[in-house]
Amino acid sequence: MNIAVLCHGTVLQPTLEALYSQGLLAGVAVPDSAGGDDVNLPLEMALRQAGIPFLRVGTDDLAGQLAPWLGQIAADVVCCMGFPGKIPPELLELPRLGFFNLHGGALPRYRGPDPVFWQIKNREPFGAITIHRMTPKIDGGGIAHTERVALGPDDTYALHMQRLGGTLPRVMIEFVQQLAIQGDKLPLHAQETTTTPYLPRPADADRTIDWTRSAVEVDALVRACNPVYGGALSLLKGIPVRLLEVAAAPPCADSQTPAGTIIAASATDGIRIVCGQGESLSLELFYAADGFFTGRRLARIFGLRPGDRMA
Question: Could you tell me which residues come within 8 angstroms of residue 188 by beta carbon, excluding any fewer than 6 positions away?
């Protein structure tokens, strides 16, 4: 069986290596770099060295670029892993066994392009790898397999991605072995009916801290934004900052202190802030326009004092 993979990012390289070791990898396509850091360059170099057909595709005319390439490499099935482009409907039935997506979250609850963010933000105990048949409805096709992946209380976005990446090679090989045996008779389970909306990529408002939320909710948002979004957003003396790490701290002595109030700020104590209903957090690591700063260093640089506010 010849498997073509559409993917993006080096976290998937172990999965590609697993397919290659089984003689199943027919070719790999990635989105063309639009400038800046080319995260797929190390992957391209490794694949070309191994003699695996490699293709970069632009966002325009995916069908025109992919259809002849899939024919050239005689792909029986296409697996998508983090590929950002929407596959045109006319392509979906082109391979003998169709297209399958390896979605980094539970379906149908976490449909959308960034389930990892939303699962961490919502403090789910598990994420998932969901393999489903691709149809014109995004993330809506029948499910072939779901593998739960633990979401630890300290997991950042990147740490959970590494967990997914470490689990994926086994899941992928098990799936393609089953597909090779059952072919187009592979059992697929229809997704449950849900009123949960399709979750878009998080906007600035989704990544902005509401200090009236509980300490665990703020912590979850910070971890969901670390490092992929550069941290959770807030304002300090009117200046945008991003929080990358917070830690539990003793509750505020005065239960009437408004959320968002700084109650400790020094080069010794760092920064403590009130959140929720009288809880507090220690603000450990920031990113601002001038670089990365610990709470202790930022307290000194900004000249922070108890009673200052964050919004």
Answer: 132, 133, 141, 142, 143, 144
Buried b (16+ CB within 10 A) or exposed e, 210-231: ebebebebbbbbbbbbbeebeb
> Identity (one letter) of the amino acid at 219?
D
Q: What is the pLDDT of residues 252-290, one digit of tens each?
A: 989 899 999 999 999 888 999 999 999 999 999 999 988
User: What CA–CA distance (Å, rounded) separates 262 from 93?
Assistant: 58
Contacts with 48 (C-beta within 8 Å, 6 or more apart), sequence order: 54
Using alpha carbons, list the distances in angstroms from residue 49 to 42, 132, 299: 11, 31, 50
Beta strands 3-7 and 25-31 are parallel
**What one-letter code names the amino acid at 209?**
I
121 burial (CB, 10 Å; 0-12 / 13-18 / 19+) is buried
Q: Where does residue 189 rank: exposed (0-12), middle (13-18), buried (19+ CB within 10 A)?
A: exposed
The kind and range of the H/E element at 235 are strand 232-236
Residues of 29-62 as b/e, b for ≥16 C-beta within 10 angstroms?
bbbeeeeeeeebeebbebbeeeebbbbebeeeeb
Count each helix (H run) and each strand (E run) in the chain, helices first.
8, 13
Task: Find the farthest-apart pair of alpha carbons in the chain and give their distance in angstroms, rounded.
Answer: 70
Please tell me the distance from the alpha carbon of residue 115 to that of residue 129, in angstroms, as a whole number: 10
Q: What residue ranges define each of the domains in the chain, with the CATH number in brackets?
A: 3-185 (3.40.50.170), 204-302 (3.10.25.10)
Distance CA 57, CA 124 (A): 35
Determine the Cα angle at 55 with ends 85 and 83, to 5°.
25
User: Each residue of 140-157: pLDDT tens digit?
Assistant: 999 999 999 999 999 999
Is the pTM higher than 0.90? The answer reads yes
